[in-house]
């Protein structure tokens, strides 16, 4: 195998996966490994030479009920990849996040006895809900690459091969992170107070969450007319969608709301907006970890389809939804979920964080967790993957 080019299949379903994927591709090359990459990738990976058979957005579906509506399309994509790899096998398949799709794809690879090793990069939250999935993971996954140390401990209990590789952002983002510099880099007035409103990167998320964010912005504007609001848009389609939402729901705020569109394949705009903001309001998800690692005060919220929420409430085994609270094992940031996720409640929680002492308490907890995530003994993901390939 050392004498030929490695063929590596990768599937990602969202921006954070695209970021992990492109880092993985670069790491292979930096370590002198001759490899080609194919599957489903995002713009960063494609710019790096990735051969994507389907758009990344094909997998951008969240929620149990929402996924059911798109099952036929998702099955067709899975079967398309399997057929491609039956005819032209890759050496190893790495599913990055998107566990509902990627674990099924890995299962199909094993069921068809394809000569392909399977890796799941970013563990599904089996420690939080649907713990029975770990048995399926044991049968279909050759290696799990874990971002957090407690995940490896969980898998070891079930004898699932796992490596704690750490979260790349925890290593990448500095422990000292002055907001004035971040405001300068984004080109906003460092003397102004900025609140980031993050409705997500998917069309469906923006449709569901933007109205609440704009409602909260309206309430805050009446009390604090000088506050500026920053909203990142991953691409032109999302920017137009957000602009239409502002026009319909908050036209009086057009002068106070700044929609910043991503301008390159690195998809950095969301991170830049969070970094330059004094307070962040965002949907619960991977971005909460990024905000934590930037040491910015935040409020998180989420609204799911009512049936998805009922099912999740029954299945979830832990008391928190957001990563900062899960990592801390206690409430560090406020979570507004479902019925509690209202413009009034969101505005009230943001207002609490406008108190410097309240915000600083949260920021210091973020810093403590950041230090914990970079102090553990981590393995190199490339070496872990190569060991799996050669085992």
TrEMBL record:
Q: Which GO terms describe its molecular function?
A: lipid-A-disaccharide synthase activity; phospholipid binding
Keyword Glycosyltransferase in record: yes
Q: Which reaction does it catalyse?
A: a lipid X + a UDP-2-N,3-O-bis[(3R)-3-hydroxyacyl]-alpha-D-glucosamine = a lipid A disaccharide + UDP + H(+)
A GO BP entry is:
lipid A biosynthetic process
Q: Which Pfam families did the record assign?
A: LpxB
Family, as annotated: Belongs to the LpxB family.
UniProt function note: Condensation of UDP-2,3-diacylglucosamine and 2,3-diacylglucosamine-1-phosphate to form lipid A disaccharide, a precursor of lipid A, a phosphorylated glycolipid that anchors the lipopolysaccharide to the outer membrane of the cell.
**Could you tell me which PANTHER family the record lists for this protein?**
LIPID-A-DISACCHARIDE SYNTHASE (PTHR30372), LIPID-A-DISACCHARIDE SYNTHASE, MITOCHONDRIAL-RELATED (PTHR30372:SF4)
Q: Can you name this protein?
A: Lipid-A-disaccharide synthase
Species in which this protein is naturally found = Acinetobacter baumannii 99063
Report which gene this protein is encoded by: lpxB
């Amino acid at each position: 195998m050392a004498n030929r080019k490695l063929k590596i299949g990768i599937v990602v379903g969202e921006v954070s996966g695209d970021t992990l994927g492109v880092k993985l591709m670069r790491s292979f090359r930096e370590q002198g490994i001759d490899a080609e990459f194919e599957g489903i990738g995002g713009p960063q990976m494609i710019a790096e030479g990735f051969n994507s058979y389907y758009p990344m957005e094909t997998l951008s579906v969240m929620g149990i009920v929402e996924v059911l509506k798109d099952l036929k399309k998702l099955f067709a994509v899975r079967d398309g990849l399997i057929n491609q790899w039956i005819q032209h096998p890759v050496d190893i398949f790495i599913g990055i996040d998107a566990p509902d799709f990627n674990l099924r794809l890995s299962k199909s690879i094993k069921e068809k006895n394809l000569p392909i090793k399977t890796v799941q990069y970013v563990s599904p939250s089996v420690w939080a809900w649907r713990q029975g999935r770990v048995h399926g993971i044991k049968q279909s996954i050759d290696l799990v690459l874990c971002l957090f140390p407690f995940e490896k401990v969980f898998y070891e209990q079930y004898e699932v091969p796992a490596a704690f590789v750490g979260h790349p952002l925890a290593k990448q983002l500095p422990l000292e992170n002055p907001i004035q510099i971040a405001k300068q880099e984004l080109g906003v007035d460092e003397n102004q107070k900025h609140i980031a409103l993050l409705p997500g990167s998917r069309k469906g998320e923006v449709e569901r969450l933007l109205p609440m964010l704009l409602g909260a912005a309206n309430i805050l504007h009446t009390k604090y007319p000088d506050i500026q609001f920053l909203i990142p848009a991953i691409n032109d389609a999302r920017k137009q969608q957000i602009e239409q939402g502002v026009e319909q729901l908050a036209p009086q705020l057009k002068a106070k709301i700044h929609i910043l569109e991503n301008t390159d394949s690195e998809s950095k705009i969301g991170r830049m907006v969070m970094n330059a903001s004094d307070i962040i309001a965002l949907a619960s998800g991977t971005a909460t970890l990024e905000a934590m690692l930037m040491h910015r005060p935040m409020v998180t919220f989420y609204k799911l389809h009512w049936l998805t929420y009922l099912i999740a409430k029954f299945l979830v085994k832990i008391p928190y939804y957001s990563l900062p609270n899960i990592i801390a094992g206690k409430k560090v940031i406020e979570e507004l979920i479902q019925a509690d996720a209202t413009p009034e409640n969101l505005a009230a929680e943001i207002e609490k964080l406008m108190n410097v002492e309240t915000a600083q308490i949260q920021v210091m907890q973020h810093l403590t967790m950041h230090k914990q995530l970079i102090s553990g003994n981590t393995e190199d993901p490339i070496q872990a993957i190569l060991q799996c390939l050669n085992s």
